[in-house]
Each structure stands twice: as structure tokens, then as C-alpha cells.
Write a structure and sequence with these properties.
Elements (H helix, E strand, L loop, with lengths): L2 E5 L13 H13 L11 E3 L1 H4 L14 H19 L4 E4 L25 H10 L8 E3 L11 H8 L11 H8 L7 H22 L2 E3 L7 H12 L8 E3 L7 H12 L8 E4 L4 H10 L2 E3 L2
Parallel strand pairs: 1-2, 1-3, 3-4, 5-6, 7-8
Helix pairs in contact: 1-5, 3-4, 3-7, 4-7, 6-7, 8-9, 9-10
């Protein structure tokens, strides 16, 4: 059964969606996914942290998780990296607040930062951007009001303009994480760094194909990808799809330099843009097949 994991900012400290506004948006997306004309999605399991992991029953009144529930909660946290980064899971990202939500009206102690500035949201987005195909990470913040979506139109709208950064090395992720906000920052940051590094190593260690086509990437993104490959992160990679991006000479040079130094030693096929001489030369030398945009 396909599985979708939700990534979204909690709207209050004690309840993520007190009026059900996010649930309405998620339900609309799930209904669209179930119209998949290829018959691949007839049922869909959903991971939603609030319902899937034990929460404190009534924190304002001191009613917290039991010891057993707390152990299960921590065990669940330890699985999040695999859940969000696995190449076959969908990740549904609510990158905008629902209509009517106002940060300035929230109770004291509530994290009012937007999606891209929150630590857990940033982490979930980065997990989803490791080795997963682009259509499996959907930005539901791009859904349009009044549109009746099916599976194909939902994917088209929610992946427009790419909506996905290149993967980050664990060191680069840790540096960016320092700028993000957490409700429980001191407790969560070390955990998140460990979980990200474990998921990065797990997914790149077994990746044989990377489908990074049509993501709106340019030279800077290609250079970032080259840095990841140069780290030795993808020893089993055989096929790399980069078609329908905006990668120019500088990005190709960065990729060529990484490949020349032995990055992705198992790479055999499809590195795109055949007109950049450095990339053409190194691919020819290594026996890597090139294809045009």
C-alpha cells in the first residue's frame, strides 16, 4: 500500500489543526491522488504525526504521556528519516498557513514561524529531497482554490517551478538548521542532525537511479549536487536524470569535475547536456552515456 507522510507547521503549541483547516486541504489532495488513472493508488496510508505518534493528552493541565507511550513516541521519532526520505513514499507539504490563520493572534509560546523557517519542516523537506522522484514530493501550498483536481493535475500544480532543492550534505544541513526555529530547540536539534545524517547515508548508499528532471535547477543547484556526489555518497548510482532543467556551462563543469575525480563510480547512463566539452570528455572517458535535453 502506498504511504504518504505529511509535513506542515503546527498552528498552535498543543494542537496542530484546531479548526480542521489543514485536514480539509489534505483531504482534497488525498481525494485527487486516489483518482490515479494508472491504478497504482487504490488505497493510501497516511502518516500524520499528531495522530500517528502518542501526544501529551493535556499539557496545560499537566497530563503527559505515560512511560510506555513516551518510549513508543521516541521510537517513532527514530523512524521519521526513513519514512520521509524513502524513495517510494509520498511527502505532502503544507507550505502555507490556511486562510484566516494569523500568527499574531496565537497564544504565547506558540511557534509562529512559517514553514520554510521551522526546524522540523525544513528537515522533512530535506529528507524528501534526497533521492525521491520529484512527483513524490508535493507542495500543497500551490493548490489553487476552486480547482477540482485529479492525480495528474495535482502533481502538475504541486511541482510547478520545481519546488525542490538539491540534496544537502549533512554538514551543510546542520549549518542551515541553526537558522531554523524549534518549539523545543535544545532537545530537537541534536536529534534532527543525527536523523538527517542517518537518512542521507541510508538513501544515497543504496540509490541506483536519481530522477532529478524538470526541477528548475540551474548552475548553483548542479554544483550542490556535484558536491554531494564528490563526497562519495552514491557508490551504487547507475543512472542520473537531469533533463529539462536550466543547467548551463558552470553547472556542467562542476559535475564534470566531480566525475573526473571518481564520483559515482558505478554511473553508466544519462547525464544530460551533451554540448559542454568538459562534461562530454569525462563522460566519454568513463563510458557514461549522454543524452540531450
Amino acid at each position: 500500500m502506498p504511504v504518504a507522510a505529511l509535513s506542515y507547521p503546527w498552528l498552535t503549541k498543543d494542537h496542530p489543526d484546531p479548526l480542521g483547516a489543514n485536514l480539509t486541504r489534505v483531504a482534497r489532495a488525498l481525494k485527487a491522488l486516489l483518482t490515479d488513472n494508472n491504478g497504482m493508488i487504490t488505497r493510501l496510508g497516511v502518516f500524520w504525526d499528531f495522530g500517528s505518534l502518542h501526544q501529551h493528552p493535556d499539557p496545560p493541565n499537566g497530563v503527559l504521556r505515560t512511560e510506555e507511550q513516551n518510549a513508543l513516541f521516541k521510537q517513532g521519532l527514530g523512524c521519521l528519516g526513513t519514512l520521509y526520505s524513502h524513495k517510494h513514499t509520498w511527502v505532502l507539504r503544507l507550505t502555507s498557513f490556511p486562510d484566516g490563520h494569523k500568527a499574531e493572534e496565537q497564544a504565547e509560546g506558540t511557534n509562529v514561524a512559517k514553514y520554510f523557517h521551522r526546524g522540523w519542516c525544513f528537515t522533512e523537506q530535506c529528507w524528501a529531497g534526497l533521492t525521491k522522484a520529484g512527483y513524490l514530493s508535493l507542495d500543497l501550498g500551490k493548490m489553487r482554490d476552486g480547482v477540482k483536481y485529479d492525480c495528474d493535475s495535482l502533481i502538475d500544480d504541486c511541482t510547478q517551478a520545481g519546488g525542490r532543492r538539491p540534496p544537502l550534505l549533512p554538514s551543510a544541513f546542520a549549518a542551515e538548521l541553526e537558522k531554523k526555529s524549534f518549539t523545543n530547540g535544545k532537545d530537537d536539534k541534536p536529534l534532527v542532525k543525527r536523523l538527517y545524517e542517518a537518512a542521507f547515508n541510508e538513501q544515497f548508499g543504496k540509490a541506483t537511479a536519481l530522477l532529478y528532471q524538470d526541477l528548475g535547477w540551474g548552475d548553483a543547484e548542479a554544483a550542490q549536487l556535484a558536491e554531494v556526489l564528490a563526497s562519495g555518497a552514491a557508490p551504487r548510482l547507475e543512472t542520473l536524470y537531469l533533463n529539462e532543467n536550466e543547467i548551463g556551462d558552470e553547472g556542467c563543469k562542476a559535475l564534470a569535475a566531480a566525475l573526473k575525480e571518481g564520483a559515482a563510480p558505478s554511473l553508466k547512463a544519462r547525464v544530460d547536456n551533451t554540448e559542454q566539452p568538459e562534461l562530454v570528455a569525462v563522460c566519454k572517458k568513463r563510458g557514461i552515456h549522454l543524452s540531450r535535453f
